[in-house]
Write a structure and sequence with these properties.
About 20% of the residues lie in helices and about 40% in strands. With about 400 residues, it is an alpha/beta fold. The protein has two domains: about 350 residues, no CATH class; about 60 residues, no CATH class.
């Protein structure tokens, strides 16, 4: 069902919040006040300067009420999935302090915090090792006018528990906007593999906040296959000694696509490790942005952190902006970062040509292999196979490549 009242995003903010527990009303009120004071991002907002959102900010949207991701796989034993709305009505104390893991939200995350109606809470109790992946899907269908969906997911993984979560966001071309927030709370020695697939041809703004206790491990693999406008942020707070995170990403854009990936990893405790590997291909008139930052706080000694962003630019009209960087306030660390933007490797291309492979097919093979190395890190085999196929459908000579892979 769609709310037919059309308003700009900021115009939809209520003047007061009178539903829910005191802490939730206060949280929504702070988010709304932040938006009223600072607004949504503009070109002058440093972290958004390469991703203009004025066409979204100034547009009028109707409210799409169906904004809860659906379970696309059976729920494994020992895992619960509850409606946030139901929990807030019956046991709101269980969510106190868990809907703002990343601290005070800003911009679109603040808008989600102020306006979300419902969501999903996935809870894995301590000691529960979940072998079967949990799959979530949110598909936005094209409607007659512009609509906005506020999707919210909370994931809590207890001490010594393990979980694999696969999220898929899909949508047709049009004026629909998906504004999603996912929050992950990992207990001591908890482990989570998080696969996120973007196949939304419309507008999408997403954020994932991860809070990690001692010796926990978080692994993210993000696959983005185009989008009229996509902005995706991941923030990992390594708060416990020995915590680790690995962030992998692959993006393929063409036409007038615009995708923007931002990562923030904060080393707040000692003996933590992080690694980021993002790869992208831009062709047509597409624009890709990668902005990754590692922050090593004072006292976070014995930190090891690495960043790498590699890109292929296959068109004179495509654009890539890349900015991996470090902020270090400790002296006993091992940190590195690097970025490349280039064309296909001519030595590799020459090698394939000498084996009798025509140049167009050789180009396509190298393009596919460049991103397949990231897709191969998806540990869920059905999703991995689907992503390989999705890549092939967007690359010329797919049938020939299938014959040699």
């Amino acid at each position: 069902m769609t709310n037919t009242n059309r308003q700009t995003l900021l115009g939809s903010l209520p003047t007061s919040f009178d539903k829910g527990p005191d802490w939730l009303r206060a949280l929504r009120g702070r988010a709304a006040e932040t938006l009223r004071e600072h607004g949504l991002p503009t070109k002058r907002t440093e972290a958004w300067r390469f991703t203009p959102v004025r066409s979204v900010v100034d547009a009028e949207f109707s409210r799409e009420e169906e904004g809860v991701p659906s379970l696309a796989s059976p729920l494994p034993d020992g895992v619960t999935a509850r409606s946030l709305r139901d929990v807030l009505r019956s046991e709101p104390e269980l969510l106190d302090g868990r809907l703002d893991l990343g601290g005070a939200p800003t911009h679109f995350a603040a808008l989600n915090t102020a306006l979300f109606d419902d969501g999903l809470w996935i809870d894995v109790p301590a000691g529960n090792v979940v072998e079967a992946p949990i799959e979530l899907a949110l598909a936005i269908t094209k409607s007659a006018g512009r609509g906005v969906v506020y999707s919210r997911v909370l994931v809590t993984v207890g001490d010594d528990a393990e979980l694999t979560l696969v999220e898929t966001y899909a949508g047709e071309e049009g004026g629909q906007l998906t504004n999603s927030v996912v929050e992950v709370d990992l207990g001591c020695n908890a482990k989570m593999s998080h696969v996120r697939v973007h196949e939304n041809a419309g507008f999408q703004v997403g954020r994932v906040d991860v809070r990690q206790a001692a010796d926990s491990a978080y692994r993210s693999t993000v696959v983005t296959l185009g989008g009229a406008l996509l902005r995706f942020d991941v923030r990992c707070l390594l708060q416990g000694k020995g915590a680790e995170c690995q962030l992998d990403g692959a993006y393929l854009i063409d036409g007038d696509d615009h995708v923007d990936h931002h990562t923030v990893v904060e080393h707040q405790a000692s003996h933590c490790r992080s690694e980021q590997t993002y790869r992208g291909i831009a062709s047509g008139k597409g624009t890709a942005v990668f902005d990754g930052i590692v922050i090593v706080h004072r006292g976070a000694q014995k930190t090891e952190a690495h960043q790498e962003n590699r890109n292929l630019l296959l068109s004179d009209m495509a654009t890539i902006h890349t900015k991996p960087h470090l902020e270090i306030d400790a002296d006993d660390v091992i940190c590195s970062h690097g970025a490349t933007v280039g064309s296909l490797d001519q030595d590799q291309l020459f090698y394939l040509r000498t084996r009798g492979i025509p140049e167009p097919l050789a180009n396509a093979m190298l393009t596919y292999a460049f991103l397949e190395s990231i897709v191969d890190r998806v540990i869920h085999e059905p999703t991995r196979a689907r992503m390989r196929e999705a890549l092939l459908t967007r690359i010329p000579h797919a049938e020939d490549i299938r014959g040699v892979t």
